[in-house]
């Protein structure tokens, strides 16, 4: 899929709607359309990166920033101390369905490992 057709690039460009909860020059965060927890936010880089396998060395800080913003949102929403889950899926066996990297931030319920 080309970057022009990428769903999350379209949300960044406001070509399709998203419930945006955070934005800066590098990062966008918005509510997942099919939440798996009371809070389920997707944190994405504004630069199109297709999968985790495509991260370049120069993008390490940008990808690190996704985790920093996730923790900031968790603190602001009051569940940081209780705990939460962050997930990044890669490719078909990893369960990736949207090919623009995204960090899932899920909070507000108890999680078990590895299922659920
Ligand atoms: P993945 O399976 O690739 O790790 O996660 C993709 C996530 O994107 C899923 O949790 C799915 O619910 C979410 N998603 C898919 N399409 C849309 C959309 O159009 N808007 C929003 N906000 N989330 C979407
Ligand atoms: Zn994209």
From TrEMBL:
List, for all copies, the residue spans of the domain called HIT.
Answer: 7-116
PROSITE patterns noted in UniProt:
HIT_1, HIT_2
Protein name, entry field: Histidine triad nucleotide-binding protein
Active site at which residues?
Answer: 102 (tele-amp-histidine intermediate)
> The motif Histidine triad motif: which residues?
100-104
Give one Pfam family: HIT
Q: Taxonomic lineage of this organism?
A: Bacteria, Pseudomonadati, Pseudomonadota, Gammaproteobacteria, Oceanospirillales
MF annotations from Gene Ontology:
catalytic activity
């Amino acid at each position: 899929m080309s970057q022009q057709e990428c769903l999350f690039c379209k949300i960044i460009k406001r070509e399709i709607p998203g419930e945006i909860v955070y934005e800066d020059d590098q990062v966008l965060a918005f509510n997942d359309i099919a939440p798996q927890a009371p809070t389920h936010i997707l944190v994405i880089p504004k630069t199109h990166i297709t999968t985790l396998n495509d991260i370049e060395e120069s993008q390490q800080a940008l990808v690190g920033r996704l985790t920093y913003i996730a923790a900031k949102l968790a603190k602001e929403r009051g569940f940081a101390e209780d705990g939460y889950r962050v997930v990044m899926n890669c490719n078909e066996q990893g369960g990736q369905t949207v090919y623009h990297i995204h960090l899932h931030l899920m909070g507000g319920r108890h999680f078990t490992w590895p299922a659920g």
